[in-house]
Amino acid sequence: MTLTAELPGVNEKDIEVTLAGDQLTIKGEKRSELDEKKESEGRTVHRTERSYGAFQRTLTVPYQIDAGQVSAQFLDGVLTITLPKPPDAVEPKQGRRIEVNKTAQNLGGPGSI
After folding, report:
1. String of b and e for 46-63 (b: at least 16 CB within 10 Å)?
2. Which of 26, 25, 22 has its CA nearest to residue 65?
């Protein structure tokens, strides 16, 4: 299984990926700084903007994975995590949608609501 996350503006050193049991967690912090100097009407305007923001997402992996087999790459703002499926993993069963019917009246028998 391959998981990708777009993390624009985040540096590789500010990303942490952990696997505990069947819980995969991606943590990170985005830091940016804008420093601008402008000459206007004989005056120098110096503007500095800084912004910070932390994030964390935890996902449940559908089968047990050996943490030593997990790999992660970060290139051009995209984090790619490879989670190899173990050979003995059981596929999760596909759910079945159950149709909900509209009834005109409640018959009032046993088990009625």
Report:
1. eeeeeeeeeeeeeeebee
2. 22
Residues 83-99 have pLDDT tens digits of 988 777 766 667 788 88
Residue 36 has pLDDT above 90, yes or no: no
Number of helices (H), then strands (E), belonging to the chain: the values are 0, 6
**Is the Cβ–Cβ distance between 85 and 1 less than 8 Å?**
yes
Token representation of residue 11 = 């540096």
Q: Domains of the chain: which residue ranges?
A: 2-82
Q: Residue 84: phi, psi to the nearest 5?
A: -65, 135
Q: What kind of fold does domain 2-82 have according to CATH?
A: Immunoglobulin-like (2.60.40)
The CA distance from 97 to 42, in Å, is 71
Give φ, ψ of 31 to 5 degrees: -130, 130
